[in-house]
C-alpha cells in the first residue's frame, strides 16, 4: 500500500477558486490522498461548495473555524488535522 499523502487547503472567502483547487488535487495520478480544507470563517459560499464536494469524495474533509484566527493559525490547524505525510 502506498503511503497516505495529506493535501491541505486553508481557505477564507475562496468560493471563486475552491472547487478548481480541490479538483486539481483529486485529479492527481497519486490516489492515496486526504484533502483537508480548513475554512477561516468565510462569509461567502466556500464551505457550502466544499461540503458538496465532500459528499462525492470521502477523501475530502472540511473543518470550520468559529471565528477568523488569521492565516498562520489556519495553516497550523490544517497541519494538525493531517494523518498522512
Strand order within the widest beta sheet: 1-2-3
Q: Summarize the amount of helix as a percent range.
A: 25-40%
The proportion of residues in beta strands is: 15-25%
By secondary-structure content and strand pairing, the structural class works out as alpha/beta
Rg result: 12 Å
Low-confidence stretches: none
The major pleated sheet works out as:
3 strands, parallel
The ordered string of helix (H) and strand (E) elements is: EHEHEH
- Morphology call: globular
Number of strands: 3
> What integer is the average pLDDT?
97
Question: Can you walk me through this structure?
Answer:
The chain is an alpha/beta fold and 85 residues long. The protein has three helices and three strands, in the order βαβαβα. It has a three-stranded parallel beta sheet with strand order 1-2-3, sandwiched between helices. Strand 1 (5-11), helix 1 (18-26) and strand 2 form a beta-alpha-beta unit. The two termini are 14 Å apart.
Tags for this model:
3 helices, 3 strands, 3-stranded parallel β-sheet, alpha/beta, 85 residues
Short synopsis of the structure:
36% of the residues lie in helices and 22% in strands. The protein has helices at residues 18-26, 46-56, 71-81, and strands at 5-11, 33-39, 60-64.
Q: How do the helices and strands line up, and which of them pair or pack?
A:
Blueprint: E1 5-11, H1 18-26, E2 33-39, H2 46-56, E3 60-64, H3 71-81
Amino acid at each position: 500500500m502506498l503511503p497516505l499523502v495529506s493535501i491541505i487547503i486553508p481557505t477564507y472567502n475562496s468560493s471563486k477558486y475552491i472547487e478548481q483547487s480541490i479538483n486539481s488535487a483529486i485529479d492527481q495520478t497519486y490516489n492515496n490522498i486526504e484533502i483537508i480544507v480548513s475554512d477561516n470563517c468565510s462569509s461567502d459560499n466556500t464551505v457550502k461548495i466544499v461540503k458538496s464536494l465532500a459528499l462525492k469524495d470521502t477523501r475530502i474533509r472540511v473543518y470550520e473555524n468559529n471565528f477568523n484566527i488569521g492565516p498562520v493559525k489556519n495553516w497550523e490547524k490544517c497541519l494538525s488535522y493531517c494523518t498522512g505525510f
